[in-house]
Amino acid sequence: MATNVTATNSAHDEARELCQVQPQRWEAAWHARVAHHGRTVRFDRPVDTIPVSVTGAACALDCAHCNRVYLRHMRTLPEVVAPGALPAGASLLISGGCDAQGRVPLMPHLETLRDLAANHRLNLHVGLIGADEARALAPLAEVVSFDVVGDRAAAREVYGLDVGLDDYMRTLDALRQHVAVVPHVTIGLRGGRPSGEIAALGALAAREIERLVYIVLIPTAGTRYEQCEPPPLAYVADLLLETRLRLPRTDLILGCMRPRGHYGRVLDLLALRAGVTALVNPSHLAVEEAAALGLEVSWGSACCALD
Predict the structure, then answer these.
(1) Percent of the chain's residues with pLDDT above 90
(2) Mean pLDDT, residues 159-183
(3) Residue 5: pLDDT over 60
(4) What's the CA dihedral at 74, 79, 83, 84 to 10 degrees?
(5) Average pLDDT across the chain, whole number
(6) Alpha helices in 86-216 (DSSP H)
(7) Are 173 and 153 in contact (CB under 8 A)?
(8) Measured at the alpha carbon of residue 175, what is the angle toward residues 173 and 181, in degrees to the nearest 5?
(9) How many separate helices (H) and strands (E) can be counted in the chain?
(10) Beta-bridge partner residues of 299
(11) Helix ranges restricted to H, 207-283
């Protein structure tokens, strides 16, 4: 019990110290949050969404932050199409490894995905697909999750792809013509260092996006970044503040992929104070903080892009 109290106090102390930097911005972000979103916050525990990889554990890229580790924990298409494999009401995150151009190869599975979409809500993770693929896949998806990287050097180092922000925006714009899209930005993607997040925010703000998910680099065993540190909390907090101020009407979500432990507890506190409207797998401190801030909590059980 004493250890838990110490951990709680330590997290609150660090969050409080960071909030004392530029207090006017914290106050402005909170006012924007309340003005446009009221005093409700959504906490998601996505137990009803099943992650599926169309490539199994295979990926043509050697990504510095993943190295196929996360694909190993996903179901495969043959597993989920088997009779009785999916409970009623389950939704699916359809993803997988990328090809050499950074696309998730969904097109060969179009008929299978069409069958799944008849009875289940689909969140498609598509990668850098073209306009024709976007048109073909859009009718199957309730929503598309789309990763955005704002820095060409970061994309080159992490993914081995020579693509820039314009390439990501070209795909985003093509998708938005046909389907709801939720951009995802990984903070500290390049081994915990700034990775073009501000440039990405600027491009997304110009498009007045309705929803935005931030995730945070997790230094993961078995990857090139396993010895790195996650991005400094001060940097993450400042980005959340800037996003709330520049996109006051946007549903701002802190997604499931982020470090846990002390870092995660402090981040949850900062995110709520910075004005996020949804938080996935909240820590117990986040639940307590929401009450302290006078927020009314609604609970969701699907992937945050679907809720």
Answers:
(1) 95
(2) 97
(3) yes
(4) -30
(5) 96
(6) 110-117, 131-137, 152-159, 165-176, 197-206
(7) no
(8) 100
(9) 11, 11
(10) 43
(11) 233-246, 261-274
Measure the CA angle with vertex 63, ends 92 and 44; round to 5°. 35
Q: How far apart are CA 56 and CA 149, in angstroms?
A: 24
Confidence of residue 8 (pLDDT cuts 50, 70, 90): confident
Among candidates 148, 187, 141, which has minimal Cα distance to 306?
A: 141
Cα–Cα distances in angstroms (integers) from residue 123 to residues 23, 42, 54, 180, in the given order? 38, 19, 13, 10
pLDDT at 6: 85
pLDDT band at 247 (very low <50, low <70, confident <90, very high): very high
Geometric angle at alpha carbon 210, from 165 and 174, rounded to 5° = 45
Does the structure show a pLDDT above 90 at 3? no
Beta strands in the chain (DSSP E): 40-44, 49-53, 75-76, 91-95, 122-125, 143-147, 181-187, 211-216, 251-254, 278-280, 296-300
d(CA 71, CA 55): 9
- Strand order through the sheet with 278-280: 75-76, 49-53, 91-95, 122-125, 143-147, 181-187, 211-216, 251-254, 278-280, 40-44, 296-300
Q: How far is CA 46 from the centre of its chain?
A: 13
Tokens 């709330």 map to which residue?
244
Q: Where are the beta strands (DSSP E) in 5-63?
A: 40-44, 49-53
Which CATH architecture best describes the domain 2-300?
Alpha-Beta Barrel (3.20)
pLDDT of residue 2: 53
At residue 26 the predicted structure's pLDDT band, cuts being 50, 70 and 90, is very high
> Which DSSP category does 74 fall into?
S
194, 186 contact by CB (below 8 A): no
Residues 6+ apart with CB under 8 A from 171: 126, 128, 129, 130, 134, 146
